Amino acid sequence: MVSFGSDRLPERAAAVKILIAGGFGVGKTTLVGTVSEVPPLHTEEMMTEVGVGVDDTVGIEAKSRTTVALDFGRITLSEELVLYLFGAPGQERFWSLWHDLAIGALGAIVLVDTRRLEAGFGSIDFFERRGIPFVVAINRFDEAVEYTVDEVRDALDLDPEVPIVPCDVRTRESGRDVLLALVDHLLGVPVPAGAGRAPAGAAGG
C-alpha cells in the first residue's frame, strides 16, 4: 500500500472514476476536500437571491455557499488503484450535469443527512436506473436524530445488497472508509452492516 495522501501516482495504477452525489448540503464538497491527496477543485459560489424559493434549504438555513458545477479530487488507495472523485451539485436545477458526470463512472457514493433523508431519493433513483453500483453514506450532524442502519435502509427503500456506511466527512479516515466500502462493493466483497466510523457532529458541504 502507498501512504494515504501521497501526491505521486503509482506507475501501474488503474484509474477509477467515482461519482459523489446526494441532496443539497449533505457534505459532498467536504468529503472530496477531506480525502483528496491533491488540492481539490471546487466550484463553490455564494448563494444569491436566484436560489430563493428554488433551492430547498429547510434544515440547512445557515448554508451560504453552493457547488454550481462539480468538485474534483484524487486519492490513491493502493499501488494498483487510484480513485478520481467527482462531486455532483445537489440542487435539482443542476441535475442536468449529472448525466455528463456519470459517463465512465464505475461506482457512486450517495451521501445522506438523516434530518432530510428524502433528499437522497433523487440520487438513489438516478444510479439505480443506470445500473451504477453505489453505497449510501450517512453523514452525521450534531442536531440530527440518530437512526439505525436498518431504519435508514427502510426509510430509503434500499435493496439489501446496498451497503450503508455511517461516516463523518470531516475526517480523512472516515471518508476513506466510505471509499473502501464502495471498492469492496464493486469487487463483490461483503460490507458489514454499519461499517465505518461516525463521530457525532459531521459538517455539511
Explain what this protein looks like in three dimensions.
The protein contains five helices and eight strands; from the N terminus they run βαββββαβαβαβα. α1 (28-35) packs across α5 (172-187). The longest helix is centred in the C-terminal third of the chain and has 16 residues, at 172-187. It is of the alpha/beta class and 205 residues long.
Write the layout of secondary structure elements.
Layout: E1 14-22, H1 28-35, E2 44-46, E3 65-67, E4 71-78, E5 81-87, H2 96-101, E6 107-112, H3 121-130, E7 134-139, H4 149-156, E8 164-167, H5 172-187
Parallel strand pairs: 1-5, 1-6, 6-7, 7-8
Antiparallel strand pairs: 2-3, 4-5
Helix pairs in contact: 1-5
Major beta sheet, strand line-up: 4-5-1-6-7-8
**Shape call:** globular
Structural class: alpha/beta
Radius of gyration over alpha carbons? Answer: 16 Å
CA-CA gap between termini? 30 Å
Total helices: the number is 5
Percent of residues in beta strands? 15-25%
Pick out the low-confidence regions. 1-6, 45-55, 59-64, 197-204
Major sheet description = 6 strands, mixed
Q: How would you spell out the order of helices and strands? A: EHEEEEHEHEHEH
Which percent range fits the helix content? 10-25%
Number of strands: 8
Overall residue-averaged pLDDT value: 80
Summarize the structure.
The protein is an alpha/beta fold.
Q: Key terms for this structure?
A:
two-stranded antiparallel sheet, disordered N terminus, 5 helices, 205 residues, six-stranded mixed sheet, alpha/beta
